[in-house]
Amino acid sequence: MIERQEDIARLDAAVVLVAYDRPGLVATKIMRGLDVPYTLVFDPTRDAYRRWGLGRTSLFGAMLSPSLNWRYLKLLLRGERFLGFAPDMFQLGADFVLDRTHHVSFVHRMRNNGDRAPVKVLIEELEGAGSRSTE
Amino acid sequence: MSQRTPSPQIGDPAPDLTLPTEAGEEFNLAPCRGRPTLVSFLSHAA
Q1: A27 to A23, A39, A41, A100: CA distances (angstroms)
Q2: Option in A49, A52, A95 nearest B38 (CB)
Q3: CB within 8 Å: A51 and B32
Q4: Of the N and C termini of chain B, which has fewer Cβ atoms inside 10 Å?
């Protein structure tokens, strides 16, 4: 998503990243020292995760899924450093795209820890959400 | 600890989201109304 800042700016979209992990570690992982216009917020108790209906995964989904391990392998091949495990390996995430009236127009709920929506899809959905809705 | 509620479906209004930023300031989603918005809940693998 960081590489798509120009698209985000063109769409005048807001991007909010919600994390439950240690703030400094997440900021390092996500922002990697870049000055990016995304809002990073923290939910250590995971109340927001529950209110948005996000579930948990199994041991396979948390650590053993091929897609997750492929993702880690790609990061290592790019020379990125492993920054440690989160306190809860089983919490799943999701991506919600909201239209201008803040109704859900797209949702991708993770089935395991390697299952994120492709950035290209999120950009397309943001574009659609911005052009479809009026208040 | 609150119970997990059903995940919002397409067409549903977004639930409230008020959380602290890394700087300790309170963030609320409401001022983002009027703009298309991506809310991305991260897992341990981000």
Answers
A1: 6, 11, 10, 27
A2: A95
A3: no
A4: N
- Write the ipTM: 0.88
> Count of A–B CB contacts within 8 Å?
174
Write the DSSP string, A81-134.
PP----S-TTB--EEEEE-TT-BEEEEEE-SSTT----HHHHHHHHHHHHHH--
Per-residue pLDDT reduced to its tens digit, A69-105: 666 666 667 666 555 555 667 888 899 999 999 999 9
Nearest to A54 among B17, B38, B41 (CB): B41
Does the pTM of the predicted model rise above 0.90? no
Q: Is the dihedral of CA A52, B37, A104, B31 positive or negative?
A: positive
